[in-house]
Amino acid sequence: MNKQFLLSGLVTTVVLFLLNAIVYAVFLKDFFLNHPAVSPEFMKQLYRPDDQLIVWAIVVCTFAVGFFVTTVMSWSGARTFTDGLKPAFIFALLFLCSVDFGLLGTTNNFTTPGAFADIICSTITITISGSLAAGMLGRGNSVATAKV
Length: 148
Fold this sequence. Notes:
single chain
């Protein structure tokens, strides 16, 4: 890995985290409350209260997805924000369809509207952050690929 890849991965991680937090707070939180898949009692059992969150696991998850997006963008060869839009969008859509429809089909924790809402919102956040990663990978080096 080179410095440009590491910097891109860190920035992508932060941007993706912030975009997801904004999208959740503005759109998805109320949407999921209005389209519950399970009873409020079960939701309390399923999700940890804020004071019981396992912060280190959330941090690892956040960095993993940020560097996952950066790695995919590195492998795509896109080196500008604009050139990154298409591969980031395709990656995001396919990845989120696999996760959300898998959860919809195998658990009681998603509704069909919830799966579609999450796919739409998260595809936007990953597309933006992936395109940013491509632009950052293109800065500094004409070929800034990650050797993972």
